[in-house]
Amino acid sequence: MADTCTFCAIAAGEAPARFVYQDAHACAVLDINPLRTGHTLVLPRRHLRDLTDDGAAEALATLGPALHETASLLTGNLGAEGISVLLASGAAAGQEVFHLHFHLVPRYSGDKQLTDHTPDAAARHTLDETHRVLVGSADL
């Protein structure tokens, strides 16, 4: 674990987060600055800076269930008609937190395109409700 990595602390249960999925290799949490209601981050528990780190290929192979289950929650529980999966690898690509992670953003027919990546203030104010809709009373 990187000493100052917020995502490592979240994955280890040492920092607060709204978990929607967890397994031995990965976890998924609601983004605290969501682009849309339900915007979720899927991250490996193991610290990897980006796609070029040694071990990234192996970690990607273990993220499949987390990505699948999270996408299923977003479509099933929020009624999303599609999912935009976003990844920034490296500062030049816009990566801000240097722990490999995927953004899953729920999409609906006719919604505005993801062009400026400006957080949605309304979605941020409903994080607790969104969490309840996604996981109910499940203890994650």
UniProtKB/TrEMBL annotation:
Chain ranges for the short sequence motif Histidine triad motif as given in the UniProt record: 99-103
UniProt xrefs under InterPro entries: Histidine_triad_CS (IPR019808), Histidine_triad_HIT (IPR001310), HIT-like (IPR011146), HIT-like_sf (IPR036265)
The family database entries (PROSITE patterns) matched by this protein are listed as: HIT_1 (PS00892), HIT_2 (PS51084)
Active site positions: 101 (tele-amp-histidine intermediate)
Single GO molecular-function term? catalytic activity
GO biological process: one example: nucleotide metabolic process
Q: Which residues form the HIT domain?
A: 6-114
PANTHER family reported for this sequence: ADENOSINE 5'-MONOPHOSPHORAMIDASE HNT1, HIT FAMILY PROTEIN 1
Q: What is this protein called?
A: Histidine triad (HIT) family protein
**Species name for this entry?**
Kribbella amoyensis
